[in-house]
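Example 312, ligand NAP.
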Amino acid sequence: MKEKIVIITGANSGIGKAAALKFATEGFRVVMGCRNMELSRVVQMELIQASNNKNVDLLELDVSSFDSIHAFCGAFMKKYPRLDILIHNAAYLNHGEKEYKLSPEHIELTFATNAFGPFLMTRLLTEHLETSEDPRVLHACTTNIKHFFDPKRKIDFDNLRGEFRGVRTFSVYKMYGDSKMALLMLSFRLAEELKDQGIKVNALQINRVKLSKETIQKMSPLWKVLARAQNLINPLPASMADNYFHICTSDEFKNVTGQLINHRRECVQPSTSEKGIAQLKNIFGSNRYPSYAVDTQNIDRIWNLSNALTEG
Ligand SMILES: NC(=O)c1ccc[n+]([C@@H]2O[C@H](COP(=O)([O-])OP(=O)(O)OC[C@H]3O[C@@H](n4cnc5c(N)ncnc54)[C@H](OP(=O)(O)O)[C@@H]3O)[C@@H](O)[C@H]2O)c1
């Protein structure tokens, strides 16, 4: 069997690190795409030791920066003959953040990191993915998108460069949920666009996983207490890492594309009713996602914007 090559973004902590360990243990060549090189080098050595696989590489990547993405993809394509699996795991969610932050390209930081950055990376790596016999792309989504079951909830397309930062209050969870909804819609459209090249694109609806100590370390004191309390009941990242692995390698998902997959590895369907009992089932279950995500106008809007912002 040819050695398979997988890129995992944000592989230095949490689910990304657990996934890197899983792939390395199974004999894959793992390329960690990380921004904090000092810390990530230590993690890389830890992964090599724990997996007994020396093929764990590290390339610098800041997913919020288009320049960094171009540099990462250029270096990757020069070094590796193809790409088999691309896992967009890195995300920005700064619990308790009250201020708008902008990326180097002056895009709201959550959107730059969680939606436009992954879109640009997939675009730049498409030819390398095409070279694989079974190329698969996976996006880390979240149950937070359930807020879109509320018919009033919409992505504020007019504020993705922080245009209203002096006027509209910054809500970290709204911005995070909006960016993950955008990522889901981009998954659906990318799956269509890349179907003829044999590239499968799916998203995983992550429900809850223990937060890493590195992530908790970045929080304010109050959020630290809350996160540690939640961690008492949440499952370990390894369980979700196993889902990454299964979706990206198993025969079961070999021909699956354009799907949102839940933590039980079932394909989630768009909701058909967002009222009454059906709506309660939507909110408390994990088998339906908001119809907002399949509205072609919404998809066109995020698709066109992603193309416009990342071209050039
Ligand atoms: N944990 C959960 O309960 C949960 C629930 C729903 C969805 N998810 C999703 O699952 C994925 C992994 O979550 P996690 O809990 O494992 O998170 P985590 O431990 O906080 O890890 C996030 C990773 O993303 C990296 N990252 C953030 N911004 C980056 C950037 N601009 N460039 C490169 N890397 C960047 C971080 O690197 P640094 O160390 O440099 O910051 C870190 O390695 C995320 O997409 C998240 O939205 C998680």
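Summary: Strands lie at 5-9, 29-34, 56-60, 85-88, 136-142, 200-206, 260-262, 267-270, 288-289.
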